Amino acid sequence: MAALVRARMKGHPAPQHLVDQIVSDAAFLACHRPRQLARPDADLDFIVSIDERLEALVDAARAAGMQAVSAADAALANDAGGEAFLPALLAFERRDTRRIESLLALAEAVPGRMADLASALMWVSARHLKGFVPLLLRHGTEAGRVLAVEACVRHRVSAEQVVAQVAADRTPASRTRALAAIGELGLPSLSPLCRPACADPEPRARFAAARSAFLLDPALDWAQDPLRAFCLADGAWRVPSMQLLLARLPTPHAHELLVRLRAAGASTQQLVDGAALCADAAYLPWLLSLLDSPEQAPAAARAIEQITGLRAPPGPEGFEALKSSCASRAFPTGTRLLLGKPCDAAVAEVALRDGFQHERLAAALYLYDRAGMPGLFPCDAPGWRQMRILATSPAPE
User: Fold this and answer.
1) Percentage of the chain lying above the pLDDT 70 cut
2) Which pTM does this prediction carry?
3) Are 359 and 309 in contact (CB under 8 A)?
4) Segments in the chain below pLDDT 50
5) Which of 13, 127, 353, 387 is the most exposed place for a label (fewest CB within 10 A)?
6) If you ran DSSP here, which 8-state letter would residue 155 be given?
């Protein structure tokens, strides 16, 4: 980085091998960021640290100017993952509409590039996107319309008109993204669009519609029914449906659903994760018994920690310490707990600030549309943006 700065200060081109390395490293970090966020020990401080590394590379690319733009464009010939992130980000910041249009065509032809463009939209500052949402809508491709909604979601802009328009699309990917955005943004005015979409022939659109409607109003039977059907069927939508229902249903109904899941053949891993979301201390004896199973112990320990707030290092010694700590404490049953306390807005916000990522994701569902945070808290947003949202949200009552 220092060599690049010195070269730029002297008006010389930066060493090409250095620019190429910056471009390669940025693609690698952008591609692997979701996996990093899924680590059991990932918390907000960890997210901020990895995002600072990526932002340092992006900043170096900005300093390299057109040299980095050319190198990033050349790297699109590779397919390791993440290569379109930097070209898209620089194009948005430079307001290079022609380059954005070519990247949209690439995303349409190469599905893996869509995630890179969505990441770039998430990363870029909102001020650089002024005027781009209409451009994306007008582009005429499914990729463009998906990304128009993505921009609205990621930057929490007023989006009712855009989301309503794209929710009526015939193309399933754009329709699905818009239906999902209704819940993510907390747009009750668009909830009526979800009801007919709960019968959509496309499963992903059906799930997105039911998820949004259920987030907005968990009492809606017509939203619960498709989610329960997904939950009790062994397929790709079981886990996300289970997570949503168990986190938002009243505790007695969540218990009933977990019993039905077991009868439907849900795996032990799924039942452990479900118990963590039901978050009733009544599940602790069963979870503690799983600490004796090498295969199930790590997940069981995470669930116990999420319910109780206790912390122990991984491994057999930590699992024994967790057993001892639980044996010496009493936790109330019949109520949802988070980090050892009855779950309310204040406790959920503490989890968002200090918890591990799986606890933060649960807290986002518990906290949905409460404490001045409209919609679903974006646990995968850049760390600095998450911190800004938390810093500006009013204190929970």
Assistant:
1) 94
2) 0.92
3) no
4) 9
5) 127
6) T
